[in-house]
Design brief:
This protein has helices at residues 19-28, 31-41, 49-56, 61-71, 82-97, 109-128, 130-136, 144-161, 179-183, 193-210, 218-226, 232-237, 239-249, 256-267, 277-284, 298-310, 328-339; strands at residues 13-17, 43-47, 77-78, 172-173, 191-192, 292-295, 317-320. With 340 residues, the protein is an alpha/beta fold. The protein has one domain.
């Protein structure tokens, strides 16, 4: 007699909360109640390092400690840092398209240490000594946050002054450059903006690996993740091929974190650029790692909905949590139930 077929358990919805929702939960002491709701409704809570980084930036350490307590109040899955996600996507595309750029004997020791820090040790450190985390800046963002916010604001002002349609800036551009650069362009000469931005960043990363000069920042961070796997000497010998790789060869659907992070920065220019805009761009990189994204920020919901319409892959459904903090659990229950 054949064995009974055991039905598979339905996949849990992955729910990611924005920092402002964790703040509501922390302020009202509802962290445990939220995790109880997760068990009741059978959804998985996923948390991103960028959320904890933003909480740690608060000038009110007592309030941020309450928010931290809410995050750590129940069972959750720690997502990799966006740098690991971006680097993983890049290495997968290199393996698929240009395996000759990979080292014959990769060294993954730094990768393993970084992965453990961001998914395990960081969270333990936050639980044991939050004051030290805030004081020493152990999890604080680099100056890239301020630079990005300033760049976003200046670019939006310039575009409005020149009467350039901001939404039109989301798409493509015909870049100019030397002959080798022009040969790397698609036949029609048009390049998706996210490709141009990702190429520029990755080119700097390759140069940083070849000739280290930075102590921190996004480029140095990505170099730390990537340098044990790529042969930068081979890549640098043919930058035309590396440029063509980004401009024409990589599949956008294979690089969700890269696409989301760069695209979010441009879409934010449609609305007001605020102090939280750089963090929102970081959080956006995780929208392919969850099914539902809950936020109190109406502008961010609109940004995500706009990106989802253009995205070449599935993006989390953004759900806005309205109302006061003391009703946050009921509101979370309502919006998640309505989304099912």
């Amino acid at each position: 007699m054949s064995a009974a077929r055991i039905p598979k358990r339905p996949k849990q919805q992955r729910v990611l909360l924005d920092t402002n929702i964790w703040s509501m939960l922390g302020r009202t002491g509802n962290g445990p109640a939220f995790y109880a709701l997760a068990r009741e409704m059978d959804f998985e809570v996923v948390v991103a390092p960028s959320i904890l980084l933003e909480i740690a930036r608060s000038s009110n350490v007592e309030a941020s400690a309450r928010d931290r307590d809410a995050v750590l109040a129940g069972h959750r899955r720690h997502l990799p840092t966006e740098a690991e996600l971006v680097t993983t996507e890049l290495l997968d595309e290199i393996r698929r398209l240009h395996p000759e750029w990979l080292l014959n004997r990769p060294d993954d020791r730094d990768w393993k240490q970084l992965h453990r820090f961001w998914t395990v040790e960081l969270w333990r450190h936050a639980r044991r000594d939050w004051q030290a985390v805030v004081d020493t800046g152990a999890v604080a963002p680099t100056e890239d946050v301020e630079l990005l916010r300033t760049a976003q604001a200046k670019l939006k002002s310039a575009m409005l002054e020149l009467k350039i349609n901001v939404p039109a800036a989301r798409g493509q551009i015909k870049p100019n450059g030397p002959q080798w650069y022009q040969r790397a362009l698609p036949e029609d000469g048009w390049v998706d903006l996210w490709r141009l931005e990702a190429w520029e960043q990755s080119r700097k990363v390759i140069m940083e690996i070849a000739r280290p000069s930075l102590r921190d920042g996004t480029v140095r961070t990505l170099a730390d993740w990537l340098e044990g796997f790529v042969d930068v000497a081979v890549i640098r010998r043919d930058m035309e091929a590396f440029t063509r790789f980004w401009f024409a060869e990589v599949e956008a659907s294979h690089m969700p974190c890269e696409w989301l992070s760069f695209t979010a920065q441009r879409y934010q220019m449609v609305s007001k650029v605020t102090d939280s805009s750089p963090f929102d761009a970081q959080h956006a990189g995780y929208l392919a790692e969850c099914d539902l994204f809950l936020t109190a920020d109406r502008r961010f919901v609109l940004t995500i909905e706009s990106m989802a319409r253009d995205s070449p892959f599935d993006v989390a459904t953004p759900l806005r949590i309205a109302g006061r903090g003391d009703t946050v659990i009921d509101e979370i229950r309502r919006v998640i139930s309505a989304a099912e």
